[in-house]
Amino acid sequence: MHVLVTGGAGYIGAHACKALARAGFIPVAFDNLSTGWAEAVKFGPLHEGDLMDRASIDAAFARYQPVAVMHFAALSLVGESMSNPGKYWRTNVTGSLNLIEASLAAGCRNFVFSSTCATYGDQDGVVLDEDTVQQPINAYGGSKKAIEEILRDFGKSDGLNHVIFRYFNVAGADPEGEVGEQHVPETHLIPLMLDAIDGKRPALTVFGSDYPTKDGTCIRDYVHVSDLVDAHVLGLRWLLEGRGNRVFCLGSGQGFSVREVIEASRLVTNRDVPIIEGGRRAGDATSLVSGSTRAVSELGWVPQRSTLAQMIGDALVWSRKAPFES
Ligand code: UDP
Q1: Does residue 117 sit within a domain?
Q2: Which of 17, 45, 87, 97 could form a disulfide with 27 if both were Cys (CB 3.0 to 4.6 A apart)?
Q3: Atom of ligand 1 nearest to the CA of 284
Q4: pTM higher than 0.90 for the full model?
Q5: 236 inside domain
Q6: How many of the other CB atoms lie within 10 Å of CB of 87?
Q7: β-pairing, 256-257 with 219-220?
Q8: Contact residues for 23 (Cβ-Cβ < 8 A; gap 6+)
């Protein structure tokens, strides 16, 4: 059984392909390689295509006849979405619409969607779950919320079965070192911090020390990428068993400030993190922490590696390995 994995050459998509292959599916990585890596496609075929090009999506459905779609491909940088909102709305929403329509035209009605806690916006310490009202404060979160709404509409009009995962902050790398996180440019906290520790960058800039939190820095809930993709396989099975449309939050349920992540990295590596105190980054929410147990209770999700030390340790092994080159 083929599963079409958009963004399958990217960070989370590549880990999902590994988990799918391990679960007995054939993952087809659909990717335009704009930010992904051909070398990360190791667990099934690569189909180069672009979600803005409907014909290339149709070709992938015709060739592989997948039983389901896992849709990871998206622009996902909060800061960039604030400075270039048009790019985010156009790419994320139009690309997803093209994909949904192509999927339905090909008779594929099972859709797993990668959404985000950025759809919640800044809710002043509220513990977030699937029923929390979504009030995005950046174009990234806005575009993802819109896609959730599109999925609901197509669920009603065309019987599109969908599972929506709202991720908190994804971190870590494949424990076997086959794939990991590599962005150009890198903007995410943990890889930047590890680079600063290893002297590959001069320092980590802390984006804002005046937030109303315990130490003034933003709080996030970090979840290991391997745990996250395990939930996707469970979500796929849920759909294939006909269990209906559902939203699941995926987080560890624990919030850590930027300074706490820095301290955890110091403990894991036994080295200080050189830091620069910077201003706030536009679009950042003060605190995003999951309060949901739905994925655990309904999907049977059992996160295995989502402690801060484990995520940093796995990311460190990956970052010190030879990175992807093409
Ligand atoms: N952050 C930071 N310095 C950096 C990158 C990130 O202080 O160089 C902070 C950022 O403001 C946020 C947290 O780290 O509070 C996580 O940011 P990241 O970009 O990793 O993920 P996001 O929360 O934007 O999805």
Answers
A1: yes
A2: 17
A3: 11
A4: yes
A5: yes
A6: 14
A7: antiparallel
A8: 233
Instruction: Give the residue whose CA is nearest to atom 4 of ligand 1.
Output: 189
Report the SS3 class of residue 272. Answer: coil
The domain in which residue 114 lies consists of: 2-171+223-250
The residue whose C-alpha atom lies closest to atom 25 belonging to ligand 1 is: 169
Q: pLDDT per residue over 10-69, tens digit each?
A: 999 999 999 999 999 999 999 999 999 999 999 999 999 999 999 999 999 999 999 999
How distant, in Å, are the alpha carbons of 82, 184, 194, 196, 205 from that of 166? 20, 24, 26, 29, 27
Nearest to 34 by CA among 53, 54, 55, 15: 53
Q: Which of 213, 220, 290 to mutate to test the pocket of ligand 1 (most atoms within 8 A of CB)?
A: 220
Query: For ligand 1, atom 21, which residue shows the shortest CA distance?
Result: 188
User: Is 184 domain-assigned?
Assistant: no
| Residue-level pLDDT at 125 | 77
Examine the residue annotation and report whether 120 is marked as an active-site residue of this protein: no
Tens of pLDDT, residues 143-165:
999 999 999 999 999 999 999 99
Where the chain has pLDDT below 50, the residues are: none
CB 261 within 8 A of CB 274: no
Within a domain: 181: no
Q: Which of 88, 120, 140, 167 is catalytic?
A: 140
- Which of 128, 201, 207 most suits a substitution to test ligand 1, by most atoms within 8 Å of the C-beta? 207
CA of 229 to the centre of ligand 1 (A): 21
For residue 326, the model assigns a pLDDT of 57
Q: What is the CATH number of the domain that holds 232?
A: 3.40.50.720
Q: What is the domain count for the chain?
A: 1
